[in-house]
Amino acid sequence: MSDAPTSGEPNRDLDAAEVVELVVPADARYLSAVRVLAATLAADAGFDVDDLERVRIAVNELMMALVEALGPDDRVRVE
């Protein structure tokens, strides 16, 4: 038996070994790196095209809010 998603459903189960962490400066220059990582992980988890776009938008909005709220010496940790 396989744990792979069936009938197009995303496989959103991650075990501890599959956790990815990204730490970037709280700077708008790093928005694209965070968006790319989030979209890649979502695609690997089986998200469809519409959901991938939603992930990109949500990550962009969250990162922009953090960049605006944090100082230039702060870091943003994404897991």
Structure description:
The protein has 79 residues and is mainly alpha-helical. The chain has a single domain (19-78), classed as Histidine kinase-like ATPase, C-terminal domain (Heat Shock Protein 90, 2-Layer Sandwich), CATH 3.30.565. Helix content is 44%, strand content 10%. The protein has helices spanning 31-44, 49-69; strands spanning 22-25, 75-78. Strands 1-2 form a two-stranded antiparallel sheet. Helix 1 (31-44) runs antiparallel to helix 2. The protein is globular, with a radius of gyration of 14 Å. The model has no long low-confidence stretch (mean pLDDT 85).
Q: Regions with pLDDT < 50 over 5+ consecutive residues? A: none
SSE-based structural type: mainly alpha
Molecular shape: globular
What's the gyration radius in Å? 14 Å
Q: Portion of residues in helices?
A: 40-55%
Count of individual domains: 1
Strand content: 5-15%
Mean of pLDDT: 85
CATH topology: Heat Shock Protein 90
Query: In CATH, what is the homologous superfamily?
Result: Histidine kinase-like ATPase, C-terminal domain
- CATH architecture field: 2-Layer Sandwich
Largest sheet: 2 strands, antiparallel
Per DSSP, the total helix count is 2
Taken in chain order, the helices and strands follow as EHHE
